[in-house]
Amino acid sequence: MTTEYDFFLGNELVEDPYPYYRSLRDRCPVLREPHHDVMMVTGYDEAMAVYSDTTTFSSASSVTGPFPGFPVPLEGDDVSDLIEEHRSGLPMSDQIITMDLPTHAKHRALLMRLITPRRLKENEEAIWRLADGLLEPLLAAGKAEFISGFAQPFSFLVISDLLGVPAEDQTEFSRGMGQAGNIGGTGGDSMQHSPLEFLYSQFSTYIAGRRENPRNDVLTGMASATFPDGSQPEVIEVVRVAANVFAAGQETTVRLLGAAVQRLAEDAPLQALLRRERDRIPQFIEETLRFESPVKGDFRVSRTATTVGGVDIPAGTTVMVVNAAANRDPRHFDDPETFDLDRTNARHHMAFGRGIHTCPGAPLARAEARACLERLLDRTSDIRISEAVHGPAGARRYSYLPTFILRGLTHLNLEFDS
Ligand code: HEM
Fold this sequence. Notes:
Blueprint (H helix, E strand, L loop, with lengths): L17 H10 L2 E3 L6 E3 L2 H9 L4 E2 L21 H7 L16 H12 L2 H25 L1 E3 H17 L7 H9 L18 H16 L5 H6 L11 H14 L2 H16 L1 H9 L4 H11 L6 E5 L3 E3 L2 E3 L4 E4 L1 H4 L35 H18 L2 E4 L1 H4 L22 E5 L1
Parallel strand pairs: 2-8
Antiparallel strand pairs: 1-2, 3-5, 4-10, 5-8, 6-7, 9-10
Helix pairs in contact: 4-10, 5-6, 5-15, 6-11, 8-10, 11-15
The site of protoporphyrin IX containing FE (HEM) has 25 residues, from helix 10, helix 11 and helix 15.
GO biological process, one term: cholesterol catabolic process
GO molecular function: cholest-4-en-3-one 26-monooxygenase activity; heme binding; iron ion binding; steroid hydroxylase activity
Keywords: Heme, Iron, Metal-binding, Monooxygenase, Oxidoreductase
C-alpha cells in the first residue's frame, strides 16, 4: 500500500486513509512518497520536530504543498532566498498561515487582538443561542442532513458573530463564501491565487468605513487594533487577518462536528453514557479530534538540509506533517486505532497543529462542538444514523471530502426521537 496509491491526487485513500498512514509509518515515520516527491511525516515526535524548527522549515506552501509548488527547482545548500523570491507567487501567500518569522509574529499578534478572550466569551453566548435556533426545525422534522442542515450554517453564523458581520449582510456572505476555491482537492486543480476576494472586498469596506466613522461594535474594535509596536496596520492587513479567520474557521469545524455526531449516532452505549455523564463531553471531543483529525496535515519546505528522526531531508524538500497520522502513532498513543473515551493523553493530539502557527481558533471549535453535542443530547432521547441513506449497521455507506487536506463527511443523515 505504501507506494501503490497517490495520496494527493488519487481517490482510493479518501474513504479510509488510516491503513496508508500506518503502512508509511511502519516503514519509516519520515518517508518520501514517490508520486509527488513529498516527505511524509507520520510519527508523533518527528511531527513535533518539524513544527518546532522554524529556522529550517518554512510555511510558504503550508496549505498547498506541491500544488502548484515553486515555479523553479529549489536547488542548492540553502534555498531561503529562492523561497523569498517566489513566495508571493504561491497560493494564499498573503495569508498568515503561509507567513514565516518575523512577519508571522507581527500578524499573529494582530490576529490575537481580534480573537481576545473577552471576544471569545461574548461569542460563546451567541454559540448556544445559534445552536438552539438551528436545531429547532431539524428536531421538529425528526430527521435531518446534519452537515448542510446544521454544521455549515452553524459554523458560518458563529464566525460571522465573532467578527461582527452585520446580520443584514450575512446572506450575501454565505453566497459569496460558497464561491470560494477548493483547497487541496484530489482532482488536482491548483487553487487560484487569493481565493478570498469576496471576503477581502467586504472587510475592506467595513474596516475603512469604521476607521472613518467609528461605532461601538466589533468591527470598530478590529479597525482600531494595532501591531505590538503600536503602529496602525494598513486596512488590507486587518482585512487579511479577518478573512483568514473567516475562511479557516468553518470547514474544519464542520468536519469535527460531523465526526463527533456520527460517532454518537453509531455507538448507542457511548451515546447513553454521554447523556448520563455530560462532563465527559470535552474528553469525547478531544478523542474525536485525535481519532478523526479534520486537518489531515500541513506542508513545510526545508530551507537547508537537516535530519528528522534520523532521516536526511535535503534543502528544498516539501514535507507534509500528517497530523492525523501522528495522532495514531502507537509510540505515543496506546492502541491508537481504538476510540477510547478513557484515554488519558487524548489531549496531546496535534489536530490543531503545534508551534507558532498552532490554531488560534481551537477554543472556538471546542466551544462549538460542546454546544452542539450538549444541545442535541438535551433535546433528543435517541439519535440514529438514517439506514435509508447510509445503509444498515455493519454495511454503512459514507462519503468523505475528496481532498488531501481535510478529513470529513460530505453528508450525515440522522433520525431523532425527542
Ligand atoms: C476543528 C476545527 C479546527 C481544526 C482541526 C483546525 C486546525 C488548524 C491547524 C492544524 C492549523 C495549523 C496550520 C499550520 O501549522 O500550517 C490551524 C491554523 C489556523 N486556524 Fe484552525 N482549525 C480549526 C478551527 C479553526 C477556527 C474555528 C478558526 C477561527 C476562529 C481557525 C483559524 C485558524 C487560523 C487563522 C490559523 C492560522 C494561524 C497561523 O498561521 O498563525 N481554525 N488550524
